Amino acid sequence: MAITLGFESYAVLPFFLMFVAIYLSGYFVIFRNWSPKIRPESSSCLISFFHGTPAALLASAAILSDPNRGFAAANTSFQKLVLDYSIAYFLTDLLHYLVFSPTDVLFIAHHLATLFVIATCRHVVSHGAFSVLFLLLLAEVTSACQNAWTLAGLRRKEDPLAAKVYDALSPPFYALYSVVRGFAGPYFVYEMVVFYASGRGDGLVPRDRTRKLQEKIR
Predict the structure, then answer these.
(1) Short-list 97, 41, 72, CA closest to 203
(2) HEC letters along 119-162
(3) What InterPro entries has UniProt attached to this entry (predicted)?
């Protein structure tokens, strides 16, 4: 299958530079007075703030704006833009892990698998953005709460207010995360697998990519 490249294929670059700038701003400016041990993870949370909720909203809009949406539908220009936005984020966060947490094999593998799925959907297959974006929506709908909870957790031993925020956010975060990752995500993956197993996506979306999507939601 041919790889289609054009000017729009490089739209990921400005997004990548944006996330790098946000990360560096967090590390050297926003969190400069925080402990060196938690500054990298805090900066990672910062770029996640700028990716998570915007990506969820953009993914929703990109899905709803396509009248021909479906598991094997052709990607629209809007959908490609949202995919580029997420590729840029995962590239930036992957660099964070490679530099500051090179032994965190699980997250590095997760980011590599995610990048493989999104990049092949965007640049190789050119179909199936609906399924990728819906999984992205499910993955990022809890992002704002999770990042706030994580940042508060990093500071809770040093800051009483952070400890209170952490305790207050823990119950709703665990509940929402369990519903999304424990029920909504697996149900959507089941529907997706049934569709591709029936052969209705043959010739458009390779079945090995479907297996990658199953691994990503776990």
Answers:
(1) 72
(2) HHHHHHHCECHHHHHHHHHHHHCCHHHHHHHHHHHHHCCCCHHH
(3) At5g14285-like, TLC-dom
Task: Render pLDDT for 41-82 as a digit per residue (tens, 0 to 9).
Answer: 999 999 999 999 999 999 999 999 999 888 888 999 999 999
Distance CA 151, CA 148 (A): 5
pLDDT above 70 (res 208): no
163 CB burial (10 A radius; 0-12, 13-18, 19+): middle
What are the residue ranges of helices labelled H in 156-184?
160-179
Residue 209 burial (CB count, 10 A): 19
pTM: 0.87
Least confident range from 9-23, 76-90, 142-156, 203-217: namely 203-217
For residue 205, give the nearest of 86, 73, 102 by alpha carbon: 73
d(CA 94, CA 178) in angstroms, rounded, equals: 25
Q: Is the pLDDT of residue 213 over 60?
A: no
First to last CA, the chain: 28
